[in-house]
User: Fold this.
Amino acid sequence: MDEKIRVAVFASGNGTNAQNIAEYFKDNPRVEICRIYSDKPNARVLERASSLGIATFVFSRKELSNSDIVLKKLKENNTSFIVLAGFLLKIPDNILEAFPNKIVNIHPALLPKYGGKGMYGMHVHRAVKASGDDRSGITIHFVNSNYDEGNIIFQAWVPVEENDSPEDIAQKVHRLEYRHFPKVIEELLFSAETDQNKQR
Ligand code: GAR
Assistant:
């Protein structure tokens, strides 16, 4: 049988998406969420990882951007694909170069709107509310060296009603994330471009 495709998930905060992804692939014989990476030693995602029995790796912002520590760990783990699920730091060039088109991020809005530095989590939903837009959604995209600017893979949207609060928008967007993100990841893992197990 083919080896499993080993996927790393990076998250900085709560980690509900990381958990949802891990649960989605739990019984998949071809995919393993092999480790959860975080830059925040107290992030809730680390507790979730421990409940799920998934190994973790915690590093500082400096270690990520000025050393090979994280890249080494990814290689040691035979990682083939990286998912950013609420990860707030930029991915440095050494990792981008080692994983071309194999790093994806989810953004809680319809890019190119409401993207860029400082646009994460509730900041995004508050900006959507303030703009009066009648819809918001999710964008799954490849990661490059600029925040939220890599090629878009998938988008889905929900209506924003006039009396929706930013929290209501967040909830609707989270539901979209849970529904679509694992499936989009699965499709990417098995597309010709990213399936490293092909013909091995
Ligand atoms: C998610 O909504 C994700 O789209 C967003 O952070 C949230 C993390 O929630 N990511 C960004 O804003 C990145 N710019 P979670 O920790 O519960 O999965």
Residues 125 and 166 are 5 Å apart (CA to CA).
